[in-house]
Amino acid sequence: MNDEIKSVQDDLAFLRTLTEGRGDAGMGAAGGALYAGAGLVYGLQCLGHFGQVIGVLRLPPLGSLLLGWLPTVIFAIMMTVVIVIDRRRPTGGVANRAVNSAFAGAGIANLALILIFAAAALRNHDFRYWLFHPAVVFVLQGAVWYVVFVLRKRMWMALVAAGWIGSGVALGLLIDHPGPYLLVAGLGLFAWMMTPGYVLMRQALRQTARAA
To answer: How far apart are the first and last CA of the chain?
Structure first.
């Protein structure tokens, strides 16, 4: 009987640590800023390509090259800065570590997916294979945000999860329509990446100010 009571107490303590925190997703201010920045730069990139497809944006070869690679260079710089900052930040409780692990796992899966879809596109000489990669990444992000919602119980996080998944399905259905595909991708990155990242950054900054 004592062992059963101890087991229940341990379970309750674990659940309490899962629900600790103040409602953020565990990213911290730097992580939220990185997430928002990635949504901004890649969203602008998608809209830039959309402009090219519909003929509104005409760039010389160097401009097209910069549009293709500059967002990744900017993101790599931002990520390096965040890694340096986060080394000095406490890891937080169980929920924060669970959320960070979920986002890290999605990042690792994304690297593997790059190899899978790039290899398929090259082997079959069909760029459409590569276009499935962003669609899958959107759905993966939706799955991660569902985990965040389960841990934090904030309805706006469930909305973000649904937005990612819905946008991912839309991308999969728009593979043969470059214009709408790029428009959905760009607006989706603004809505489901840039905006939540900004919200999380502001929440973390407010919490830091209150704790000071």
So the answer is: 45
